[in-house]
């Protein structure tokens, strides 16, 4: 018996999706790691049986039935009902015009919808660079991700719930920072470390001089130069010393009535070796001018694996009035600039109008607090992992792939910290070597797997790959092999 016309309408009502809900279950499903299928090899999503039963031919599936189809409903949650409904109407019209068979309508609707948002596509970082600025630097810990999700709605961001009065913005985050670095009297969080430098330079030295060593005129990524950034605030740069040698006497000679700030900048992406001299922070205090140490990479305390990397606790103990660093480098948190140091100095920064334009948002503050208070973040876990373990992981992966007929071998490799941290440091790591032709389809997969092409091979380095993701790497390679 042919199905009655109203059978589809008699289905249980479709779940109510709020198109504006920021984190719905359906949306999360999209970022969940499913086995990877390279682009081009994607199967057209199948519509549910109920929608496909639109017999006889030329019967156009009804709008409510199409919108209730689980695959379509998932896109409603992501894209909003209006856009999906407009697409449904367009495809129904093609069907009415005879250009499309009724049973093809659900798949045609799905195919006509825009692809998943292109910004923030997940990428497995198999480059061997622990902190890759192009890949969004540090991955957040599970605790930080949960904190972001929990603070997406309205929160107590600037409200003291005990008194009902206005409170300090991100008070919990600032307390976590002070607890993590007891040498700091106070803390402030801005959009990124560049913003921290700009805020300090503007508030303390606009229209005056900032003394900086010629050995610390650093260019960071994408052509940005920190001296230009500092000069953009209206402060005048007073360069001292030479490229290789700057002494405390050089600073002393330059400091005068017009000096607003001394900046010590970490050479975070290069080293100077040979005949060199550098003044320590402890030699720059007592000149009557505040000292800002831009540490770059965000270690809070000394890290024995990276002995040449500066840290906040040591710089403050040495007498820096302020330190600043990125939260998404070695700290392993969200993009943010952290300023720590003297309470009075930080209060003058917080009261400066520019702070209003640079302050961090509630999601960042939540993620940063959870990073500081929660379990060791992924970057620190990866840094501390034993080199032997990395080699074992690469060997296990290569073995699994070989068992599936893929030409894969495990080899030791040199990883780097990257992202403006620990220049010159080599981290003993391991890679899986595949034929070069794997690189492109792996990069096009979802999630993308990004290795590096070197020595006539596609190298997948396990350094920055979460061990829990090893099986996704294997799945991705197997999927590429299957499609060949
Ligand atoms: C990375 C870095 C910066 C820039 O930090 P962002 O958080 O990317 O703005 C500034 N100074 C130093 C020394 C750095 O290493």
From TrEMBL:
The EC number(s) this enzyme carries: 2.9.1.1
Record keywords, A-Z: Cytoplasm, Protein biosynthesis, Pyridoxal phosphate, Selenium, Transferase
UniProt cross-references to SUPFAM superfamilies, sorted A to Z: PLP-dependent transferases
Needed co-factor(s): pyridoxal 5'-phosphate
Subcellular location: Cytoplasm
Pfam families given in the database record: Se-cys_synth_N, SelA
Recorded family membership: Belongs to the SelA family.
Gene that specifies this protein: selA
Pathway: Aminoacyl-tRNA biosynthesis; selenocysteinyl-tRNA(Sec) biosynthesis; selenocysteinyl-tRNA(Sec) from L-seryl-tRNA(Sec) (bacterial route): step 1/1
InterPro entries: PyrdxlP-dep_Trfase (IPR015424), PyrdxlP-dep_Trfase_major (IPR015421), SelA-like (IPR018319), SelA_trans (IPR004534), SelA_trans_N_dom (IPR025862)
UniProt-recorded name of the protein: L-seryl-tRNA(Sec) selenium transferase
Entry keyword Ribonucleoprotein: no
PANTHER family recorded: L-SERYL-TRNA(SEC) SELENIUM TRANSFERASE
GO biological process: conversion of seryl-tRNAsec to selenocys-tRNAsec; selenocysteine incorporation
Catalytic activity: L-seryl-tRNA(Sec) + selenophosphate + H(+) = L-selenocysteinyl-tRNA(Sec) + phosphate
Annotated positions of the N6-(pyridoxal phosphate)lysine modification: 329
GO cellular component: cytoplasm
């Amino acid at each position: 018996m042919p199905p009655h016309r109203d059978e589809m309408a008699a289905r249980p009502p479709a779940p109510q999706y709020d198109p504006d809900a920021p984190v719905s279950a359906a949306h999360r499903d999209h970022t969940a790691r499913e086995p990877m299928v390279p682009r081009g090899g994607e199967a057209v999503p199948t519509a549910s049986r109920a929608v496909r039963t639109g017999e006889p031919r030329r019967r156009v599936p009804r709008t409510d039935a199409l919108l209730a189809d689980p695959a379509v409903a998932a896109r409603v949650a992501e894209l909003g009902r209006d856009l999906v409904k407009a697409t449904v109407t367009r495809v129904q019209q093609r069907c009415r015009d005879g250009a499309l068979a009724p049973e093809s309508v659900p798949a045609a609707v799905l195919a006509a919808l825009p692809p998943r948002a292109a910004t923030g596509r997940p990428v497995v970082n198999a480059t061997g660079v622990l902190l890759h600025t192009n890949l969004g630097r540090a991955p957040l810990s599970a605790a930080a991700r949960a904190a972001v999700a929990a603070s997406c709605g309205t929160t107590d961001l600037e409200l003291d719930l005990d008194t009902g009065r206005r409170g300090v913005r991100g008070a919990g985050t600032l307390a976590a920072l002070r607890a993590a670095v007891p040498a700091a009297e106070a803390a402030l969080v801005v959009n990124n470390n560049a913003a921290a430098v700009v805020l300090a330079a503007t508030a303390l030295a606009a229209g005056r001089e900032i003394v900086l060593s010629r050995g610390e005129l650093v260019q960071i990524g994408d052509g940005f130069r920190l001296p230009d950034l500092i000069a953009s605030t209206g402060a005048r740069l007073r360069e001292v010393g030479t490229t290789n040698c700057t002494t405390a006497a050089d600073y002393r000679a330059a400091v005068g009535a017009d000096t607003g700030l001394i900046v010590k900048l970490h050479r975070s992406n290069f080293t100077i070796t040979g005949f060199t001299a550098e003044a320590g922070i402890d030699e720059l205090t007592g000149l009557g001018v505040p000292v800002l140490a831009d540490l770059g990479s965000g270690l809070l305390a000394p890290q024995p694996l990276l002995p040449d990397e500066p840290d906040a606790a040591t710089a403050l103990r040495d007498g820096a009035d302020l330190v600043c660093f990125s939260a998404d480098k070695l700290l392993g948190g969200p993009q943010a600039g952290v300023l720590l140091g003297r309470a009075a100095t930080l209060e003058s920064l917080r009261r400066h109008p520019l702070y209003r334009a640079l302050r961090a948002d509630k999601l960042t503050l939540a993620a940063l607090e959870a990073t500081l208070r929660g379990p060791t973040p992924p970057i620190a876990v990866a840094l501390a992992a034993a080199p032997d373990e990395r080699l074992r992981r690469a060997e296990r992966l290569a073995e699994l792939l070989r068992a599936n007929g893929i030409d894969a071998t495990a080899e030791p490799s040199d990883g780097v910290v990257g992202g403006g941290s620990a220049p010159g440091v080599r981290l003993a790591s391991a890679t899986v070597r595949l034929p070069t032709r794997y690189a492109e389809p792996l990069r096009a997969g979802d999630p993308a797997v990004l290795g590096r092409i070197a020595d006539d091979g596609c190298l997948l380095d396990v350094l920055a790959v979460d061990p829990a993701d090893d099986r996704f790497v294997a799945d991705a390679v197997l999927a590429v092999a299957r499609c060949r």
